[in-house]
Amino acid sequence: MPLVVPGINSSMGDKSDWVNKLMGKTIGDNSNETSFAKQDLSQSHRVLKPGDMKTMDHDPNRLNIHVNEEGAVHDVNYG
């Protein structure tokens, strides 16, 4: 099985790029100082709110966006 490292042999980008784009912002319809447009996210993504149920399958190309109770992004990772 080949080693897959997001940002190196994946076309999805590097985690630090997404951290810089998303951290502290909400996910919405438009991009501005406080929001990031959902249509500009990677094709394979999911937004996870506190307490959300999630599948445990690992997809190294899927961007996981973790938001807090107010909907602001506080973490991103691949999986």
Describe this structure in words.
With 79 residues, the chain is mainly β. It has a three-stranded mixed β-sheet with strand order 3-4-5, with helices on one face. The chain has a two-stranded parallel sheet with strand order 1-2. Helix content is 10%, strand content 27%. About 6% of the residues have low confidence. The radius of gyration is 13 Å and the shape is globular. It has one helix and five strands. The protein has a single domain, classed as 2-Layer Sandwich (Trypsin Inhibitor V, Chain A).
Terminal Cα separation, in Å? 16 Å
User: Using DSSP, what is the number of strands?
Assistant: 5
Taking Cα atoms only, what radius of gyration do you get, to the nearest Å?
13 Å
Percent strand: 25-35%
Task: Strand order, main sheet: write it out.
Answer: 3-4-5
CATH topology: Trypsin Inhibitor V, Chain A
Give me the secondary-structure topology:
Layout: H1 15-22, E1 26-28, E2 35-37, E3 45-48, E4 63-67, E5 73-78
Parallel strand pairs: 1-2, 3-4
Antiparallel strand pairs: 4-5
Summarize the structure.
10% of the residues lie in helices and 27% in strands. The chain has 1 helix and 5 strands; from the N terminus they run αβββββ.
Keywords:
Prot_inh_I78, 10% helix, 79 residues, globular, two-stranded parallel sheet, 5 strands, Proteinase inhibitor I78, mainly beta, Trypsin Inhibitor V, Chain A
